[in-house]
């Protein structure tokens, strides 16, 4: 955190000065480690074992917050008889299909509750009939990979769970209740296993457990803070689930000083998620409709919410209709489903990596790149650059001529001969962008807080903000389509595209924020801004571009522009910026009071029930129905906010409780289970299933994988490497490698190795090293340091190599170097299609890498020694030669290889 978020780390240091204990868990010793009370180096990719052993410690020592857990979690709920854990099935949960690499999740549900797929009603048939895990080279399996991505963003707010038949055991003794299932599941996660898998000694692990449990309970709370890199794993979602289970067991959710904080970057990463850059979401985390399941608006609404479930997600119809009204205004009427048909439909996975592969298949003609540098910053950089060469046109908007814009003349593939400038038909349009100080608007930071940024200076020359660029692009497209009678053009022509301009001819960001907030459209309040998402209606009487942001313009005031000093308000500081939803600074804060509505302690008082006033009150905006008494119990079958009992604090969950066990919403398991990374020199000691059995693999000749565990050839790539950021550089380097003041601080790409690894491989400090994977080889300066320590794992020493990922090969930056991300292949998390780019295996040797065609031969020689084929690492169910894509697909691949060998 100190390395990547130095401004935010100020508050950690202030907390430490007041007595807080800071524990840093990271493979590498960093600036954060230097000021932490305890640094715990662990093997990259082993976090689930570490977290799971903390859960086991909490449960086995009785350290869990019993009253909180019984009242506010699903610990007492009884699971179905046919649920089977990974220990029963050698590494997979019940419902696993080895042919498709997917789960039928119905057996994970509560006893007495109707089956509900994670995919959502209406999508089941499409997904079950697709070979989602194959990723082979046949047309059928390629199409199934495209289908795999649609419609998995329902999570805890998914379709009706039929909760009226749910069975509970308040004593927590029933063998199938969540609490007992959790205890059995985590019994194997012992301090000894932590040492064996993570390389963390038991005495050091004990210090972590003691600190976390001692700092939790009625009087104290512990926070878990993770970098975005925690998600960059094939089990990344389950890492965060592991932390959530710890926090729920210790009573740290919904309380001040608790929770889980994802560290977001300064570039409004949280805001980019809220008003989404993700292909399968609409603003406010509404799922995108799919082509097969959502023919009409009622079809769509029936799959994302139900009037029978608890909580505020039952108003998804109001959130959706208000969004459609914001986008299409008067054209959106009840008679035409509020222009629901104007929305595009998902046909499957349209994420970043699927898009790149579609470029290689010549099914995509053009590409916009904004705020990223995929030629350097995305996994498998070679695949990214080769794909760009297949485009007809490419638009790059950035501050500098980044490597994605210049790949056609100076990429590594030009040097190797894989690309020739004269053969590349891609027309590149580089459009200079305005910096964050040259435009106004909101940033949404990691606390969900919107803060208004005023323009400091006008952008120079032709530099434009993204808002201005897209407004102008939309205006020009609409001019070209004016008068068109084609149905396909109506969505563009019907858009509300009439934003006011300022004195410089720029679009008013303030007007956009007002539109996002939403308005009353009819009645006495017509034209007035909405003050809360609870005012939205499903009849077309309100508009709003993102329901969770509604209230940011309450009373006609830009709430995000507030900057009242802390000395002039109380400690929660509600008048500094504005946090979604409803300016709540802590989500689910009803859990900060006991079931009777009293603070757990005076020290941690946050919100509470005022019996005399008959309302919830406190330091924060209560995240609950304001006048609902703690004693309230709904009638059976009542849904929505009225269905929440007075002690159901998790108001967006279908049952109002925090989930220790996830009965729906996840594709890779209801509880975290340890799997090794896609590439690992270590065999999974828990079961024969080596890696996540639902991970998204791509069997392609241009995406070969290293052997893992005890697989033949794994000794060719015996080391673990992990990537990270440096304070002196920013992400892929587009904002730092062009600045002399920053470039001179970190002038060359380097690798960090321990003295022991240096001795083993003959690496010299400040000399050169070549790091090789099945994709490519890169070179780096050697930094011999104690910051990356060897770990004893599974009875042998595992060495780790640290690689910052800011450099790229190109002629325009002040400093350049090989890109760390070139080493990675493409393997994705099953839930959100994020790449595994924090850990993989490699070889490292002294000296500079070969150049030109000799580099390709060097990489191929390693592959031949390791026996790498397109099947290597891509059989999703370990140990079964016909798994993870069907026997026919595997047989076809092997037949092709046999013919090729002959």
TrEMBL record:
Pfam family, one: Molydop_binding
Domain of life where this protein originates: Bacteria
Alphabetic keyword roster: 4Fe-4S, Iron, Iron-sulfur, Metal-binding, Oxidoreductase
Comp. bias intervals (Basic and acidic residues): 143-155, 893-902
GO biological process: anaerobic respiration
Subcellular location: Cell envelope
Domain Molybdopterin dinucleotide-binding, first and last residues per copy: 720-822
Ranges where the Molybdopterin oxidoreductase domain occurs: 431-475
Names of required cofactors: [4Fe-4S] cluster
Keyword Oxidoreductase: yes
InterPro entries: Asp_de-COase-like_dom_sf (IPR009010), Formate_DH_Act (IPR048158), MoPterin_dinucl-bd_dom (IPR006657), Mopterin_OxRdtase (IPR006656)
Stretches for region Disordered: 114-166, 691-711, 874-902
Any GO molecular function: 4 iron, 4 sulfur cluster binding
GO cellular component, one term: cell envelope
Similarity comment text for this entry: Belongs to the prokaryotic molybdopterin-containing oxidoreductase family.
Stored PANTHER family: FORMATE DEHYDROGENASE-O MAJOR SUBUNIT, TUNGSTEN-CONTAINING FORMYLMETHANOFURAN DEHYDROGENASE 2 SUBUNIT B
Name the UniProt record assigns to this protein: Molybdopterin-dependent oxidoreductase
């Amino acid at each position: 955190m100190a390395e990547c978020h130095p401004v935010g780390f100020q508050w950690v240091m202030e907390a430490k000065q007041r007595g807080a204990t800071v524990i840093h868990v990271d493979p590498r010793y960093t600036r954060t480690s230097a000021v932490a009370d305890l640094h715990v180096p662990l093997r990259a990719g082993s976090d689930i074992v570490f977290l799971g052993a903390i859960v086991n410690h909490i449960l086995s020592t009785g350290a869990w917050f019993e009253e909180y857990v019984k009242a506010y979690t699903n610990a007492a709920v009884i699971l179905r008889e046919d649920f089977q854990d990974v220990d029963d099935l050698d590494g997979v949960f019940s419902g696993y299909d080895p042919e498709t690499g997917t789960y039928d999740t119905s057996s994970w549900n509560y006893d007495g509750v109707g089956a509900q797929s994670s995919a959502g009603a209406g999508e089941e048939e499409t997904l079950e009939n697709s070979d989602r895990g194959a990723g082979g080279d046949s047309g059928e399996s390629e199409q199934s990979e495209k289908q795999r991505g649609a419609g998995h963003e329902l999570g805890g707010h998914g379709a009706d769970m039929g909760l009226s038949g749910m069975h509970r055991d308040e004593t927590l003794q029933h063998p199938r209740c969540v609490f007992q299932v959790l205890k059995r599941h985590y019994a194997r996660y012992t301090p000894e296993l932590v040492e064996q898998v993570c390389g963390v000694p038991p005495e050091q692990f004990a210090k972590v457990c003691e600190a976390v449990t001692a700092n939790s309970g009625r009087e104290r709370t512990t926070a878990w803070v993770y970098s975005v890199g925690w998600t960059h794993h094939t089990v990344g979602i389950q890492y965060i689930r592991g932390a959530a289970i710890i926090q729920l067991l210790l009573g740290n959710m919904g309380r001040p000083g608790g929770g889980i904080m994802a560290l977001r970057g300064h570039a409004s990463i949280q805001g980019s998620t809220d008003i989404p850059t993700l292909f399968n979401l609409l603003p406010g985390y509404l799922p995108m409709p799919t082509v097969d399941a959502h023919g009409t608006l009622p079809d769509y609404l029936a799959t994302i919410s139900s009037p029978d479930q608890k909580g505020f997600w039952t108003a998804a119809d109001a959130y959706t209709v208000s969004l459609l009204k914001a986008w299409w205004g008067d054209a959106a009427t009840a008679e035409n489903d509020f222009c629901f048909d104007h929305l595009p439909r998902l046909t499957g996975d349209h994420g970043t990596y699927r898009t790149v592969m579609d470029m290689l298949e010549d099914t995509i003609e053009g590409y916009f790149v904004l705020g990223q540098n995929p030629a350097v910053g995305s996994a498998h950089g070679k695949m990214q650059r080769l794909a760009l060469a297949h485009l007809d046109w490419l638009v790059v908007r950035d501050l500098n001529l980044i490597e994605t814009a210049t790949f056609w003349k100076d990429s590594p593939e030009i040097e190797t001969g894989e690309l020739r400038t004269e053969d590349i038909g891609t027309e590149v349009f580089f459009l200079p962008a305005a910096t964050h100080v040259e435009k106004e608007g909101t940033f949404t930071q990691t606390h969900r807080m919107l803060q208004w940024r005023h323009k400091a200076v006008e952008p120079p020359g032709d530099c434009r903000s993204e808002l201005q660029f897209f407004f102008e692009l939309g205006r020009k497209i609409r001019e070209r389509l004016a008068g068109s009678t084609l149905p396909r053009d109506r969505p563009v022509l019907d858009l509300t595209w009439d934003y006011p301009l300022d004195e410089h001819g720029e679009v008013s960001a303030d007007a956009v924020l007002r539109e996002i907030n939403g308005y009353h459209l009819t009645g006495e309040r017509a034209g007035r801004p909405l003050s809360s998402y609870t005012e939205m209606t499903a009849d077309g009487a309100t508009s709003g571009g993102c329901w969770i942001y509604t209230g940011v313009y309450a009373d006609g005031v830009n709430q995000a522009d507030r900057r009242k000093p802390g000395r002039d308000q109380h400690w929660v500081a509600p008048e500094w910026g504005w946090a979604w939803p409803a300016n709540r600074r802590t989500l689910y804060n009803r859990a900060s009071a006991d079931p009777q509505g009293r603070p757990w302690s005076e020290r941690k008082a946050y919100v509470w029930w005022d019996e005399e006033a008959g309302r919830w009150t406190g330091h924060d905006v209560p995240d609950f129905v304001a006048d609902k008494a703690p004693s309230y119990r709904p009638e059976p079958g009542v849904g929505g906010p009225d269905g929440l009992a007075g002690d159901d604090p998790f108001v967006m969950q279908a049952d109002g409780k925090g989930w220790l066990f996830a009965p729906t919403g996840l594709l890779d398991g209801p509880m975290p289970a340890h799997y090794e990374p896609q590439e690992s020199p270590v065999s999974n000691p828990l079961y024969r299933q080596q890696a996540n059995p639902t991970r998204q693999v791509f069997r392609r000749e241009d995406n070969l994988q290293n052997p893992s565990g005890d697989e033949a050839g794994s000794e060719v790539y015996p080391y673990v490497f992990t990537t990270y950021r440096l304070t002196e550089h920013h992400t892929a380097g587009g904002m730092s490698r062009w600045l002399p003041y920053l470039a001179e601080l970190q002038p060359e790409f380097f690798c960090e190795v321990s003295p022991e690894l240096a001795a083993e491989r003959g690496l010299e400090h400040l000399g050169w090293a070549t790091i090789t994977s099945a994709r490519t080889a890169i070179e780096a300066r050697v930094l011999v340091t104690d910051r990356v320590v060897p770990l004893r794992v599974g009875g042998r020493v595992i060495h780790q190599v640290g690689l910052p990922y800011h450099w790229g090969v190109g002629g325009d930056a002040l400093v350049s170097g090989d890109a760390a991300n070139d080493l990675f292949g493409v393997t994705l998390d099953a839930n959100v299609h994020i790449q595994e780019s924090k850990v993989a295996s490699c070889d490292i040797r002294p000296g500079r890498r070969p150049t030109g065609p000799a580099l390709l031969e060097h990489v191929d020689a390693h592959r031949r020694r390791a026996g790498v084929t397109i099947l290597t690492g891509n059989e999703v169910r370990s140990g079964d030669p016909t798994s993870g894509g069907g026997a026919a697909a595997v047989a076809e691949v092997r037949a092709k290889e046999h013919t090729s060998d002959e």
